[in-house]
Amino acid sequence: MRKHVPWVWSVIIIGAVGIACAATIISFADPYATGKEAPSATASFAAAASAPFEQAAPAAIVGIPIRLIIPAINIDTTIAPVGLTANGAMGVPVGPTGTTWFDLGPRPGEIGSAVIAGHEGWKDGIFAIFDNLHKLQPGDKIYIVDDGGATTTFAVRTSVLYGQNANAATVFSSSDALVHLNLITCGGTWNAAEKSYSNRLVVFADEETTL
């Protein structure tokens, strides 16, 4: 049985750390927003790192996600697994058109909240994969294809725009024993002085099951 970090925290705050779309637990670096290399971003992972690992709830074996498809906004792209950088930041795509899945949490299709990140606002006006993420509506379908060829279907529940100091506990954790997928990107306006965007956009989606 695969083991993963138990995402059980009372408060997660999304804020600005360095150039990151950041959380006090995990930060989402955006090194390409200005065309300059990102400075180091710091974030505390002590709460999770010190917690014991737990087994995922018994379920059908879920493969590693390799492709993200969102027909409503014409996305069909790759997914790369990432963990945390040396500075405590969640890894981000190296280019504008890919996405990353946080592999210390659940896989899409496992019980819990799987998290996938992508860029918005690439340098020089180049299209980034999540530029249109804000256009998703409740009920829009999201498809995840794994390395075994299986597809898991999710439906958008809602989108939330978080401020820098917002409580975002539900982004990385859930307690309802259901299967969720959360897509994260930056939003709002770019603050050159703080080297960070003003907001973080999260799209919350739930697995569609056949009765």
Account of the protein in words:
This protein is mainly beta. The protein has a single domain, classed as Beta Barrel (Sortase, Chain: A). It has helices at 46-49, 169-172, and strands at 3-4, 13-17, 20-23, 27-29, 54-55, 65-70, 75-82, 89-90, 99-102, 112-118, 141-146, 151-163, 166-167, 179-191, 196-207. An eight-stranded mixed β-barrel has the order 6-7-9-10-14-15-12-11. The model is unreliable at 5-58 (pLDDT under 50).
Radius of gyration: 16 Å
According to CATH, what is the topology? Answer: Sortase, Chain: A
CATH architecture type: Beta Barrel
Report the total helices. Answer: 2
Largest sheet entry: 8 strands, mixed, barrel
Strand order of the largest sheet: 6-7-9-10-14-15-12-11
User: What count of structural domains?
Assistant: 1
Segments where pLDDT lies below 50 for 5+ residues?
5-58
Name of the level-1 CATH class: Mainly Beta
Count of β-strands: 15
Strand content bin:
35-45%
So, the CATH homologous superfamily? Sortase
Proportion of helical residues: under 10%
